[in-house]
Amino acid sequence: MGRSPGAVATIIDSQSVKAAETVGKDSRGYDAAKKINGRKRHLVVDTKGLPLFVMVTPADMTDRDAAKEVLFRLRLRHPEITIVWADSAYAGQLVGGEEVPEPDAEDSQPAEERVGFVVLPRRWVVERTLAWVMHARRHARDYERLIQHSKSLITWAAITLLPRRITRRQSRRANQPPSREHTRE
What is the pLDDT of residues 48-74, one digit of tens each? Predict the structure, then answer.
């Protein structure tokens, strides 16, 4: 497709999810913004929506604080990444005291100009991936006692997306009618 084989641009977002009674109190928190007692899933995806990194934290951890750890680990695993798109929840002081600016004017409208729900450019990719992960019924609520198990199951759900994409594309090509150029001959 004329792109670099490794991801150089990524999108980051988080999702708060309720925790079941089996989840220990030490690994859950209360997200006041969403009014959810549970855990928060931080997901970094490439521009095609394929997950590169997953981290699970208590829900009371802010996105900006979690981004310090997420971006540090992401840099260790994928040093080729040059840009990370994020929403305004990630703006502020990050790793090494670096200031993360608010999203560019081209990426989003100021909050006071938005009316209702507005899809932000590039950010819908990570939202779509979170929706794909939620298709696995087990992810509607976090049942795992350990954060590592929760992270593993999210990764597993993301891995199951890959064979579906591959087989879907191949079956579409096999079932496509021949193009007009081939039918004239």
Answer: 888 889 999 999 988 888 888 888 998
Give the ranges where the chain is alpha helix by DSSP (H).
63-77, 124-134, 147-175, 180-184
Q: Are 59 and 29 in contact (CB under 8 A)?
A: yes
| pLDDT (mean) for 38-57 | 89
CA distance 66 to 128: 21
Q: Which residues lie below 8 Å from residue 156, measured CB to CB, with a gap of 6+?
A: none
**Is residue 144 a contact partner of residue 27, using CB atoms and an 8 Å limit?**
no
Domain boundaries, the chain: 9-101+119-170
Phi, psi of 95, deg, nearest 5: -55, 130
Which residues in 27-144 belong to E strands, given as ranges?
29-31, 36-46, 51-58, 83-85, 92-93, 99-100
CATH fit for domain 9-101+119-170, picks 3.30.160, 3.30.420, 1.10.3470, 2.60.40 = 3.30.420
Instruction: Between 110 and 137, name the one with better pLDDT.
Output: 137
The predicted model gives 107-125 an average pLDDT of 62
